[in-house]
Amino acid sequence: MLASLFEQVLGQGPLGRHDDFFALGGHSLRAMTLVDRLEHRTGQRIPVATMYEAPTVEQLARHLSGSIRHARGPHLVPLRVEVDGPPLFCVHNLAGHVWLYGALAYHLKDRYRVYGLQGEGLDGRPVGFARVEEMAERYLEEIRPIQPHGPYHLVGYCLGSRLAFAMAARLVAQGESVGLLASIDGVGPTLAARILRSGVVEGHEIDEPDSASAPARRTLHERVGSRLRKLQRHGLARWACLRAGVGLGVPGYARNAYLMRVYRRLFLDYRPEPIPVHMMLFRSTPLQRYEKDLGWRPWCLKGVTTCDIEGPHRLLDDPYAAGLARSIHTSLAAGR
Question: How are beta strands 113-117 and 76-80 bridged, if at all?
């Protein structure tokens, strides 16, 4: 049954039990499709991140049967850990997911063990964190069994870069070293307020034109439709937060809106202090209209190195992920 699902989603076959979903052209959207079809067939729902943990038919079958057990915390997700290389820890995005790092992890799999740190609330239970600092400490507790001491390599995407920075700050305070602190389209505190006033940096919206030029480039129908969709998301998020506030679960259709609202607030409320670290900053085309360091220089006392990548905000998707992986490897090899 699993082999058949793999064949349907990938559009090829026949496939064997050792064929790797991602090596055969799978990506995050196809992984979501497979997970949905698997739930429809079996009634069993698995996180999309499981596909990166068990990417072959045999591994996924063992996972579903319960024969695979991982001695790890609830937030740590092995994305690609086939080689005995240094670990690379990728912090979740606004919606709490780590599967968006799948393509990047695939391109780094021959040199590094790539782990994701996923957020709370993906199962519908309320998020228990009140501050980013709490999240950082909890996640560090979970990665220490994998890597007791530095140098630690951390990657954050979009506003998740603030969480990666908070983890780096905590490590520095503990006397540990940070080898790589990478921010992918993450904006610093001084710039964030300016960009976020228009509701940008919630995903694809960062790829939209500046608010000043948008009216000239979008029809009235498009602008009204966009506004209505935004109001619908906000209303759904408020309703979900009310449910979570009284201890009720958040249903699947409202979960993404709820998590983006909660984590957005947590990330934006975080007030960092300057720390002696260097940041490797990767900027997509839409963010290249802002200052080169995206507002991070005052907080990174060892400087910010910016690498511009021509592409949309979704740099973690192929074909951009391959070049991003090469740049990250170059940075690590250079000891930046």
Answer: antiparallel
The CA dihedral of 33, 155, 274, 302, to the nearest 10 degrees, is -150
Contact 29, 87 (CB under 8 A): no
Could you give the 3-state DSSP secondary structure of residue 156?
A: strand
Cα dihedral sign, 216-219-222-223: positive
pLDDT in tens, 40-58: 787 777 777 778 778 888 9
Look up the CATH number of domain 1-69: 1.10.1200.10
Q: Which residue spans of the chain are classified as CATH 1.10.1200.10?
A: 1-69
On whether the CB atoms of residues 129 and 135 are closer than 8 A, the answer is yes
Show the DSSP H helices in the chain as ranges. Answer: 2-10, 28-42, 49-53, 57-65, 102-108, 132-143, 160-173, 189-196, 214-217, 220-245, 252-269, 320-333
| Residue reference for tokens 């082999």 | 3
Q: How do 113-117 and 279-283 pair as beta strands?
A: unpaired
Mean pLDDT computed over every residue of the chain:
83
Q: Which of 77, 75, 72, 76 is nearest to 51 (CA)?
A: 77
11, with CB counted inside 10 A (0-12, 13-18, 19+), is exposed
Residues 262-274 pLDDT 10s: 888 898 889 999 9
User: Residue type for 93, please?
Assistant: N
Class of domain 73-209+266-333 (CATH, top level) = alpha beta
Question: Max CA-CA distance within the chain?
Answer: 57
The yes-or-no verdict on residue 218 having pLDDT over 80 is no
Contact 189, 272 (CB under 8 A): yes
Residues 65, 44: Cα–Cα separation, whole Å: 11
Nearest to 187 by CA among 116, 286, 332, 97: 286
